[in-house]
Amino acid sequence: MSSLVFDIETVGFPFDGFDEQSQKYLLQYAKTPEEDKAAREGMGFSPLTGQIVAIGAVNPDSKRGAVIYQARGAKAAEDVREGVQYIRVPDERALLERFWETASHYRQFVTFNGRAFDAPFLHVRSAIHRLKPTRNLMPNRYYDDHIDLYDRLGFFGAVRKTMNLHMWCRAFGITSPKSHGVTGYDVAGLFTEGKYEDIATYCMDDVFATAELFRYWKDYINAK
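Predicted structure:
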């Protein structure tokens, strides 16, 4: 079965861009300045208050990868560096169109925590742009159409605590995407600063780490 490992990066929309009722809703549980700050900075965790700024993907068999990323005010462009195709697009709609065209060529999708975040985010943001997905990224949890490694390595909740990607990479000797000094919490700041390629590079680091973890899962953990 042809597989595609993917990961997304997101940022929140400006808080001031929401109407008064929405702002009250978003801050309803913020009782301290720290909680207020966390609520405002967490806008990128929901497809209703945030957008996708990068999608990285790799074919784990051919090792060929590509990352589609937003660059505000820039013209669309493509180039290849270190075997990765960098696809620059001007907005989220163009990014989603390119992703779904690529996804149409694959039958199996691999993520880390993608069922809880990446896949629903992609489906909802696509619907907002009135784009129809070419594949269902949220099939039955136990089907192999979508291998969510967070789910599989935690044996579908049987394990008391399933840790994050960094900890799994550390355990298996895989280079962690966090080892380069960038984390998902830095993406919003990088986007504001116009450091779009830094986001794209970080996204691909996540993808390659996930692909390597997928190899370990297939070779040593999956009993099939």
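Summary: The CA atoms of residues 56 and 67 lie 4 Å apart.
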